[in-house]
Amino acid sequence: MFARKSFIIMVTQAIGAIMGMLGLLIIAKIWGDFATTALGVVGFGMAFVGMFSFITDLGFNTAHVKRISEGKDLGTCIGTFISIKLILTGVMVAIVIGGMLIWKYVLNQDFYDATKENIIYIFLIYYVLLSLYQIMTLTFNAKIEIAKSQTSAVMDSLVRVPLMIIVALAGVTGAYIGIDGLSNEVNITAKYSWPSFLHPLQDFLASHALGAFATAYLLGAAAVFIMAFIQFRGYPIKRPSKEYAKSYMHFALPIMFVTTLTVISVNVDKVMIGYFWAAEEVGYYFAVQRISNMLIMFSTGISVVLFPTISMYHVKKKFGEIRDTTHKAERYISMMIVPLTVFIIVFSGDIINIALNSSFQPAIHTLRILAVFTLIAALRMPYIYLVVGMDKPGISAKILATGCVINIILNYLFIPSYGVLSGFDIVGQNGAAIATTISVLITFIMFRFASRKLVDTRLFQSQIILHIAAGSIMGIVIYFLGSMVDPLRWYHLTCFALMGLGLYFSVLWLLKELRKDDINMVMDAINPKGIFQYFKSELRPGKEE
Questions:
Q1: Interval 369-405: pLDDT, tens
Q2: How far apart are the C-alpha atoms of 194 and 207, rounded to whole Å?
Q3: Could you tell me if residue 346 is inside a domain?
Q4: Is residue 505 part of a domain?
Q5: What's the distance, CA 215 to chain centroid?
Q6: Reported pTM
Q7: How many domains does the chain have?
Q8: SS3 112
């Protein structure tokens, strides 16, 4: 069941990632060079408000999952968490709006280039919905009710991407933005003629292209919230408990500071790029980050199930099961992500051309670096959940805080045009990617040592070496094949990917790293009948106890 639930998460994340890439593809193809700046403006707005979204978490999200997975009263947990979330979300809204008003009316500062005032307000509402949605989805995850959480999550891409496509097809009229340091007017004629009765809508979308583009993200979040709310009916909601609130605070307090730093660290790269560079530089980074993030779905699928599982094992003092489960999770994550990382590194330029357009070519090296970052971050994830699942949030907080501080400092040193590595042309997006990769590598090592101390996990699994060896062989072969046949279309890349994966798993089989048990587990996890029965049993109407 562990494997099946992980597979369901991977599938839904893959659907979201593929649809997200489809949206970026159409935006990039239709809007051309303007797409880099548009993505930069949207990416900056999302990251800017995202830096304040730590206020809606402060460690209470993790505390909620932890307390429910420990068997605390569900209704009291939910009622307490709702009250905490509403307070924290209100504080975030007040701080963001207050800060914007001070910036505009007290400091008399303007919004320009990557900084668009209306975009920021749109994403403020976006993060409010996201915060309230977490009340429900974190409850689902704590109870390991993956079908409910994933049917909600998939609504985002099902709503957002079609809306993005509609906005792109409407064209662009009179968008004044900074391009190459100058303020230029952008006009893009609609590719297709709309029916006459839709002309008012088309004209509105075209004249408000950036706002409409950002609103697509907002409506996607609204769809997720509505679906999760529907799934949440029947769950008990009891009066908030002072005792439970203290329990949540006790768990959240040690990780409160690191939660703040983590959220800031995740968003500060795009904000700094937007501050030191033009919006199009943010667009390069934002777009290829979306591509590299597709790799993380494999580790997310396993880790979402892993955290409450380790938490339950910890309550029962089954330390051997914790160690074995963590090793298995890391092994399967590595086995799946290594070949994909290699593929992205080898064909980064072709992937950008096909998935986006040639105007994104300056992001080739950034995509390669971010692919390595994603691999390290994925391998780190099981050990984060091991430490937190064993009720050691203080240890996790110290490690993540160290990584966040390093990341913020390195971003400041590497991103500006006068950065410490500017002599090597490592600035802007490339500087941000390297800073992020270095910081995650440091915390990766620290978490492994912490896990070894807690439950005697191995510092390094020999299987990872075999995965890297098989991936290297795969990379060399597809590199030479690619040099002989230029992959100009998506189906060319698909053929190279299938050949590469076939070679990779063949090498693992010869090395006896891929075993019959692994294949049987995968076949059981993806069995359509088993998946249908699981969804049917979990989504069956009925009151939660």
A1: 999 999 999 899 888 888 877 878 778 888 888 998 8
A2: 15
A3: yes
A4: no
A5: 19
A6: 0.75
A7: 1
A8: coil
